[in-house]
Amino acid sequence: MEKDVAPIMAEYWEKAEFPFQIIPKLGALRIAGGTIKGYGCPGLSITANAFATAEIARVDASCSTFFLVHSSAAMLTIALCGSEAQKQKYLPSLAEFKTVACWVLAVLRVMVAWQPIGLCMGVYDMCHRYLKERKQFGAPLAAFQINQEKLVRMLGNVQAMVLIGWRLCKLYEAGKMTPGHASMGKSWTTLRARETVALGRELLGGNGILSDFLVAKALGDLEPIYTFEGTYDINALVTGREVTGIASFRPAASTQRSRL
Ligand SMILES: Cc1cc2nc3c(=O)[nH]c(=O)nc-3n(C[C@H](O)[C@H](O)[C@H](O)COP(=O)(O)OP(=O)(O)OC[C@H]3O[C@@H](n4cnc5c(N)ncnc54)[C@H](O)[C@@H]3O)c2cc1C
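^ thats the input. predicted complex w/ flavin-adenine dinucleotide below
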């Protein structure tokens, strides 16, 4: 990812195009199909699959979405719902990325929660390097207290996000994960990611709004993640229903007469 994808993604992002030439390289990683066993798929644990997703997002969130749709949404659906003949026919070539799959509707929110985690790891990496390299007022930016505080806040967020994601994986593996758990994981990680990426954008000064330095691109890439697979608000309400026993999706019945 660092060698073949990182150098070209900003250019493709600006053009709003996908670099299809990287697909064989994604195939060579041998992670497509994630947790599926057999049919040429790697049979990873849910935790290993989650970290693989995060490591892709660390370099490029668009690639991680492409990977999730192919591997989790499409391949997993075939593995769970397809006939034996369909699994034999489609999964081996999809596992090698010789064919590419797409699918709409819902993917699992556990993996989606790992996208903002990986994305923030990448932003933290970039800021850490940048603050040590760029000098202002005779010292590296890393020497200024406010910058250190922001960097540490970012690191704390990343650590907490990884732990929430890891806990979700363990609950899932134990068959104990509820919709409320998954929703809280997805909504909370995107909320923290928004803060983390905004801090990164501040730390880079003017370069924080240029796609060359990853952070502005990450800022843009995070927004769809905040919304798809249920917006932050709706996921919060799913968890709210679980902990209170009261669904609040529909507004309270409005009275006919206004007091105004
Ligand atoms: C890049 C991208 C990719 C997507 N990919 C897919 C996909 O592959 N498959 C798929 O099925 N969908 C996909 N979506 C659609 C996504 O799931 C929806 O955009 C999302 O669920 C929000 O729905 P909406 O856009 O209709 O917003 P709306 O429902 O119009 O919501 C607008 C605002 O009102 C809030 N709101 C709405 N209802 C309530 C309520 N009851 N209580 C409190 N607040 C409320 C929302 O939180 C939001 O802030 C994708 C979206 C994006 C941006």
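The pocket of flavin-adenine dinucleotide is lined by residues 104-105, 224, 227-228, 230-231, 233-234, 237, 249 (CB under 6 Å).
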